[in-house]
Amino acid sequence: MVGRAHSEREKKRLLSALKEEYLLRAITLYKNAQSTPYTLSLRKVCRLAEEQCLQEKKKRVALSNSALHRRLHGGQCHREVKEGQRWLNNNEEEVLTNEVIYWGDRGFPLDHGRLKEHADEIARARHGDAFPATGVGKAWTSRFVSDHRDQIGMYWTHSMDHSRARAVNPFNNPDYGGLGWVL
User: Which residues form the HTH CENPB-type domain (predicted)?
Assistant: First the structure.
């Protein structure tokens, strides 16, 4: 969003994505260098990828040659490791997001407590007894909302206008297809 600073969490996520992009480039550079008569060390390949990042993105990243070595030998990136440690997988998060949108569209937006209850229910269904009794955690809902802020958001509701509120009465309600009031 223009004119709005990124949170520290968002800055870390963006930097991590940039590092991952240039680490993949370093892997390609290293593999290409192995097919030539001269070979490059892992450290040299990391420095070349860092220079590419600085020239192209005007951002300085620090790539680790040990991370490059681990990835060359079948290791996973941090994002992939974290995927297995999350309480909800991507499909379950999508279901939860759709549920938040569903209730919000009907005029009953979920607060953090209700969102946590829904998340706990979904996670408990998958993890069973391995899921803690305390639930997903204190700050889980805040992180969930910030991760999905392109789909869901939080805002203050406003009270009903007085003229609209006065129009809700036993005589007008049946005229608009309501069930009416029991007197």
Answer: 80-154
Q: From CA 40, how far away is CA 34, in angstroms rounded?
A: 8
DSSP state of 131: S
The CA distance from 28 to 52, in Å, is 13
Cα–Cα dist 125/129, whole Å: 9
For the stretch 82-115, pLDDT in tens is 777 788 888 999 999 999 999 888 878 888 899 9
Listed by start position, the domains of the chain span: 8-76, 86-147
Neighbours of 72 (CB within 10 A): 14
What are 128-165's pLDDT values in tens digits? 988 888 989 888 998 898 888 888 876 666 676 777 77
Does the pTM of the predicted model rise above 0.85?
no
Continuous H helices in 58-180: 65-72, 78-85, 90-105, 112-127, 140-147, 162-167
Q: How far apart are the C-alpha atoms of 179 and 87, rounded to whole Å?
A: 43
